[in-house]
Amino acid sequence: MFVLGLIFGSFLNSLSFRIPYILNYQSSVEEIPDMGLSFPRSFCPNCKNPLSIFSLIPVFSYLIQSGKCKNCKESISITYPFFEILLGILFALIFIKFNAINFLLILNCILVFTLILVARIDESFFKIPIALNLIFLFNGILLNLYNWTFNLGVLSFFISLFLLVSIKYLTDFILKKDSFGWGDIILISNLSLFFGIYNLPFILFVSSLSGIIWYFYKKRNALEKTIAFGPHIALSGIWLLFIL
Ligand SMILES: [Zn+2]
After folding, report:
1. Which of 87, 193, 183, 94 is closest to 138 using CA atoms?
2. How far is the CA of 42 from the centre of ligand 1 (A)?
3. Count of CB atoms situated within 10 Å of the CB of 107
4. Which of 130, 144, 217, 228 is the most buried (most CB within 10 A)?
5. What pLDDT does 226 receive?
């Protein structure tokens, strides 16, 4: 499962690079105007040279090339091997938790994969792609069907949605500006669908606390003060998965 996690981590790196181009969050690369999910082959972001099959092996290729592109010698961001290893560890932990290859294991791996993808895209672009939220929704519905808790799941989703929309309008009214985005609201409601409404307080508490800590960290280091909420919601969801 660890190796599978590494491979999916590599896939996640590729998606978090491609999705912002496909959705026009970022203007396209001049040399590659029509970037798709699988086309063109992965390339070096600096020299645009396609990567060899060998360079696609997670982590090891990074170590062997000592973190530099073979062609232009530009350093490759440490985030690539970092997310490969992170996903490797998380997939292994999910396997230890469920102790079998079954449907629940697959659903939980999809949850973790998509949460980290959302976190990365939201952190860079302050946007949560609707397609990813739809994957969450579908994933949550499947889990509830599997556990025979469909009614509870749907109820959890709508209670959470109602509460969060009320909070949003209230804070928007008090602060006279956009407090948090629709992407965040739907993401949290999807987590309620997945984990049940009784875990909503945990999700809200952990994500707000982690968001506040991150805000003050950024403020102290004189970085940009706006924070994306997605990564903190993702953190609370992954945490919850392992303590339930
Ligand atoms: Zn290069």
Report:
1. 193
2. 11
3. 16
4. 228
5. 78
